[in-house]
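Figure 2 data, in text form.
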Amino acid sequence: MTDKRTLSGQVVAITGGARGIGREIAAGLTAAGANVAIGDIDLDAARATAAELGIHASRLDVTDPACQSVFLEEVTQELGPIDIFVSNAGLMWVGPFTEEPEAAARAQIEVNLLGVINGIKAAAPAMLARGRGHLITVASAGSILPIPGEATYGATKHGVLGYLKAIRAEMRGTGVQVTAIMPGVVDTALAAGTSSGAAKLLTPTEAARAVVKAAARPRFEVTVPGFIGPAVKVVNLLPTAIRDRLFKAMVPNQLRARKNQRQSYEAAFADPKR
């Protein structure tokens, strides 16, 4: 097991840090002594969170590579070289894949997948040059599970995990570490009106605690709750018919679970006229 390291004085940049899991990650790392900066598309909300936590805030559009670079440059100038980069921003549309608006599919791919790629490409070179650093991405248990009603979201999260596996292999021996945090359903606006299936509904603090723990003691794949990862590996060894029955019992069917409170959240990115 990797030795635990101190987080005191570490410089951390977090995307999607204004609310939910991102906010709690910022709070947890700040409490651990790190020097934290958050970026978010909603600058007012980011500034409000920053004022509460005593940290730095910037506007950040993760879909724009230039904006990612500017954000990291601001953090470096303000706090020093970045030790830990946390990709957390995300979107999710829930419903039948045949009914998903094109704008919703595109937004999820641009934020959830390309947003992670953009951020890592911006953050990694300086870490590689220094011979140390940690790239942490908040993915999802949807990275390893088949979840009805979350087809495009699941595709983006499977893509994130695949990307992280590849860059981890490329950077082996460089001193730069990679972590994928894969929580189940978390009680945030992104997951409002959905089911947590066989696992309990997580709080943002519980998901953030896994990030802080991984920052102190790096691991590559972290599922929350922890049993999800081993359970999926075992189930995937079984014949397809048995595997399907077990996943049906364990994994939430969001087509049946979704409720109307998702409408206002999804309208913000699924309506091309917004």
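Caption note: The chain has a mean pLDDT of 95.
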